[in-house]
Amino acid sequence: MNRIKTLALVVSASLLSGCSWLYGEDGLIKDTRYDYVKAKQASDIKVPEPLVQKDKVDYTPIPAIGEKAKQAPVGDAVALSAPIQILAVLDNVRVNKKANNPSVYIIEDSEFLWDAIINLFETHEATIVVKDKSKQIIQTDWMAVDERGVWLGLGGNDDIDEFRAKYRVQLSDGVLRNEKQVEVTRIAAEKLDEDTDAWKPVPSFWQDSAEMLNLVISHYDALAVERDKQSRASLIAGFKVQLAKDEKDAAALVTDASLEHVWEKLPKVLKALDFEVNDRDRRQMTYFVNYENQEPGFFASLFEEEKERLPLETGEYQVTLRELGERTAIVFRDGQGEPLKSDMMVKLYPTLSKLFGVNR
Description:
Layout: H1 2-23, H2 67-71, E1 93-95, E2 103-107, H3 110-123, E3 128-132, E4 137-140, E5 143-145, E6 163-173, E7 179-193, E8 198-201, H4 206-234, E9 241-245, E10 251-255, H5 259-272, E11 275-281, E12 286-291, H6 298-303, E13 315-324, E14 327-334, H7 342-357
Antiparallel strand pairs: 1-2, 2-7, 3-4, 4-6, 5-6, 6-7, 7-8, 9-10, 10-14, 11-12, 12-13, 13-14
Helix pairs in contact: 3-4
């Protein structure tokens, strides 16, 4: 028994001496818990030139600390604003993220879009110094802005007593069909020196141009909503459709009505046919619908006007619109996007012709 205790003590001592040999200050494995205090500052990260976003400004700086914090503004005196985002929330508007300046793509008639931007400045009596329709450029004279670059909406002839700026709106062709790119740039900005009563240049940032682009989008949307409202009112009058073929030789309904006219009227026709609209894609000019072919109930046949059931199976369908020269083609498709056969369109034609021609 004594031999066992002696052996245990010898083993323990060996292990202890072994640990100091492995983990001690002079051991094989160094203690690195406090190595961070000896670390040297690394060089700043350098972003490759093609990835650098120019004209950015930090509207949410990190507050000062230490002695500097005593002199820094606090509370309501801190001038902060939310980060600026381009308000491309409309169905036909998307942001061009690759542009150096704030830019969006808008699927819209070129004339209407041009007139909407001109109307924005003229409504607020801002002076336009360049209005070159051939080059699609609109440029303003000096306009009043606040310290953060937000346009105050004062006319060009009004007195500006603190900050002012000039803007350029450039239109160009977009990527998709009937799409236009709208790019806004604040090309100059100045601040009035109260001591010398002279204007001094101040920098312009991406956010300043984005503010104006948001105003352009908002004003365009207001005019487009009013236009569409009037257009919907005009849909009371129906239009004639004929059986024909589209440009890909698919069976279609063809009409002399405009693409926009048909796009606005189509939901009313689909609703009358008991189609449920699940979604729509304006860029593809397509409505995604569902049809359920049900036998009417007993009481429905007594108290409601019996609706004509379509010779369609229950399931998902698509309805797409296409320009066919100066006319508009309406193509009904199955859930996989395949056009319905000619014999089916012949069966559907009497009902569709009646609904498109009805004043509704």
